[in-house]
Write a structure and sequence with these properties.
With about 425 residues, this protein is an all-alpha fold. Among the domains are: about 60 residues, lambda repressor-like DNA-binding domains (434 Repressor (Amino-terminal Domain), Orthogonal Bundle), CATH 1.10.260; about 110 residues, Tetratricopeptide repeat domain (Serine Threonine Protein Phosphatase 5, Tetratricopeptide repeat, Alpha Horseshoe). It is built from 23 helices and no strands. Helix 5 runs antiparallel to helix 6, helix 18 runs antiparallel to helix 19 and helix 20 packs antiparallel against helix 21. Pfam families: HTH_31. Keywords: DNA-binding. This is Transcriptional regulator, contains XRE-family HTH domain.
Amino acid sequence: MSESVGERLRELRTERGLTQRQLAGTQYSAAYVSSVETGARTPSGDALRFFAQQLGIDADELLGGSSPRELIELDLELIETAERFLAGDARRATPRMQRIRRRAERLHRPRQAGIALLWLAGYSTGDARTKYVAEAETALSGEPPPVRAMVVPLRAAVLTGWGELQYALHLLETCHAELLRDGYPQPSLLLTLRACLAERHLRQGDLERAAEYAESALRLHRGGPAVLAELTRSHLEVCRSHLAADRFADAAASVAAAYDLMQERALHPAMAHCLLARARVRGRAGDVGGALADLAAARETAWPDDVPAITVELAAEHLAAGRLETAATLLDQVRPSVVAGTALAAELRLQLGSLARARGDARGAAEYLRAAVELATGLGARGVLVRALRPLSELLGETGKQQEAADVLRNGLLALGAEAG
């Protein structure tokens, strides 16, 4: 709601011939007035009352021409429906969010209509997602830059689905740079962009860039799902209390704060990749405890499809730390969910082989490592192949199979592109 308030504030200020400095008076700065008018800042109830006094109107008038109660109730319904998406009830949330979108359009509230479309896009796939994103771009085209930028992560998701990962990264990077350049460092939006950039750089294999964005996103992040849910509930309760007392300006500020938290809660799958990037950096630096903590937290918040890979990585860290039983438990948990014939299946066999070797089971270790090498070679999974070759070759040599060890190493190096000598 803060963007419509900002537009209204700008209209009334210019109608009265006031500068931003004059409207700010002695309590605020011209820069603060500018940030409210552009939608970069959400004004507090005190600020709205002060500006209304400066303009000679009631604070409620800053909420626009529609009934202030009706607009706040629209935002409350939008947030409650978004809660259903987050709870995994997309089947019932989708038609309700579609009704909110139509209601927002009837009330001439393009921002709420656009946000409703973004929630619909976030929980859709394929052509439906593409359609919702395009409609959200149209709905928000007249909004200030921070609001228009809310579409960018989902447009990047559409591009990624089309195989245009580089274009998606360029779009996110450009949007992030332009917001900083033009003076819109809105925390919730920067968090969203940085988390998405970290996720995509990590999927591309660029750990350095992923870790850079991940660290800055994690600094802006306010807590886990339970903490953010509790903060959201608190703001919504405050909003309803203000609404019951007809304090519409305060209610608007509370509902805006609640919506920022909802955006952050929707980011948890991307935040899991931020934690994953930081875990890898910590692991390389020898911070085993930090890496294990980040991987465990990532596993709790990731999309279900990402959990098996994170679990295998967590097991590998426990194995490297000598915690064999914990590693074994994790690998047993994840085995049924790993799809056969995939790079993750090769990684699982590598870790099972490493576990067997650590337990002194040379025969079992050789079987698992041999299977990992064969599968990784067939898939062209170079990372797994590189890490499986040496332990398999060493193990075969230790058990007196020097020729087989030499053959495994030679064939593996050929598969990696080495020239035959």
